[in-house]
Design a protein that fits this description.
β6, α3 and β7 form a beta-alpha-beta unit. This protein is an alpha/beta fold and 412 residues long. α1 crosses α14, α2 packs across α3 and α11 crosses α13. It is globular and about 65 Å long. The two termini are 21 Å apart. It has a seven-stranded parallel beta sheet, sandwiched between helices. The chain has two domains: 230 residues, Rossmann fold (3-Layer(aba) Sandwich), CATH 3.40.50.2000; 170 residues, 3-Layer(aba) Sandwich (Rossmann fold).
């Protein structure tokens, strides 16, 4: 272990020795387990790093009823009562962030973690605070651009303020990380324009394990469109439901299924039931197996979100199930128009409805594009290929950090 002074504080660094396993902490402020995109991504990433030979640790709010994982877990207290729903209430969030910081600092010290993989902004800010205390380098995994996504959670009157605050965060925090991983080129370019040095950015697409979807892939599918995911504002479900009312006029035999982990009461608070079409069904899913079963019976999946910076994990779920995707152009990452799905250029109910009607009327084309999507997942989103890249980024961050003592002495 090395020690050096940073801003007057003695901090510790745990270097990699020959034959050592890389000891990495994955930091997230979101509750686990939950069938949401970020949680699924972090969970599968941790499992993939373990297979890569990394000693992986998850530090996050963890439901004590969660099943044992192949990686080490360090639960953040107080326990989050809504962990199974995947949400952390607004009143609890500052307390969770504070306890996450304390828990992370303890875990780094006790386990000798050599690098932190910080997911989203709360994970990043927490990890940067612990880096100041313990000297452990930080790899920031950007799931979105804050100026793009934060306004979708805010009331209309506060969206401009939310966008300004998000833009300040984008300029301030990512460039403080030792390394940055983005899921797509456009986010990498955006963060570079906000001050992140190009050599510290690496683009690694999200991975997905297609195994849970295999047994539910059906050859004959129902005349059904499907949406899977949470019901937060950025999902843009109002547009989807408006488009579906137009679909019903042209094709009254088709069905739309909304598969979510949010209980029906939560759904009704966000979407007024009177606005739903006659053939719209809400399916509450408590496991990935249930989601896979619903996907396996649908002809086409829908991604109506208008936020441009995220990479919808639902798109990978659709492709892993052999289901093609209809997506707005803003959320079309992973969709190859004409090959694995359809991309809607205009954000209007009419444009989205036209794509839905066309797809549901073409079962053979849906099947062809679904098969192509499955092949894309296998070739470009396999964790066995991506985990070594993530481990390499971590080692590069550690190598950068080993120069920190010299830099600190020169400054002093």
């Amino acid at each position: 272990m090395q020690t050096f002074r940073s801003n007057g504080r003695v901090v510790k660094r745990y270097p990699i020795r020959s034959g050592d396993r890389l000891r990495a902490g994955l930091v997230a402020a979101c509750a686990f387990p939950a069938p949401r995109g970020s949680q699924v991504l972090v969970d599968e990433m941790a499992e993939a790093l373990v297979r890569e030979g990394v000693d992986a640790h998850l530090i996050a709010p963890l439901d004590p009823r969660a099943r044992e994982r192949p990686y080490r877990t360090h639960a953040v207290e107080p326990a989050v009562p809504r962990a199974r729903a995947g949400g952390v209430t607004g009143l609890l969030r500052p307390l969770v962030d504070a306890t996450l910081t304390a828990r992370l600092a303890q875990t780094v010290e006790r386990e000798g973690l050599q690098v932190l993989h910080a997911h989203n902004y709360e994970g990043l800010v927490t990890s940067l605070a612990v880096r100041a205390l313990r000297g452990v380098p930080v790899v920031y995994h950007s799931h979105n651009v804050f100026a793009d996504e934060l306004p979708t959670y805010a009331p209309r009157a506060l969206r401009a303020a939310a966008r300004s605050f998000g833009a300040w965060c984008d300029r301030t925090f990512p460039r403080m990380a030792d390394r940055v991983v983005t899921l797509s080129d456009d986010v990498a370019e955006h963060l570079q324009s906000r001050g992140v040095e190009p050599h510290r950015i690496c683009v690694i697409p999200p991975g997905l394990d297609p195994t849970p979807f295999e047994e539910h892939r059906a050859t004959l599918r129902k005349r059904r469109a499907i949406f899977t995911g949470n019901l937060d504002g950025y999902q843009n479900l109002e547009l989807l439901l408006a488009a579906w009312r137009l679909v019903e006029k042209n094709d009254p035999s088709s069905e739309l299924v909304l598969v979510t982990h949010v209980q029906r009461g939560g759904a009704s608070r966000r979407l007024r039931r009177s606005n739903w079409g006659e053939r719209v069904r809400v399916q509450i899913a408590t496991s990935l197996d249930q989601v896979a079963r619903e996907l396996g019976s649908a002809m086409v999946g829908v991604s109506p979100r208008s936020s441009w910076s995220g990479f919808p994990i639902k798109t990978l779920n659709y492709m892993a199930s052999g289901t093609p995707t209809i997506a707005l152009v803003a959320s079309s990452k992973g969709v190859r128009p004409g090959e694995t799905g359809w991309v809607v250029e205009q954000e209007t109910p009419e444009a989205l409805a036209a794509a839905l009607v066309g797809a549901l009327a073409s079962p053979r084309e849906c099947a062809r594009r679904g098969r192509a999507g499955l092949q894309v997942v296998r070739e470009h989103h396999c964790w066995n290929d991506l985990a070594p890249l993530i481990a390499d980024v971590a080692r590069a961050a550690i190598a950068d950090g080993e120069q920190a003592p010299a830099r600190a002495r020169r400054v002093a």
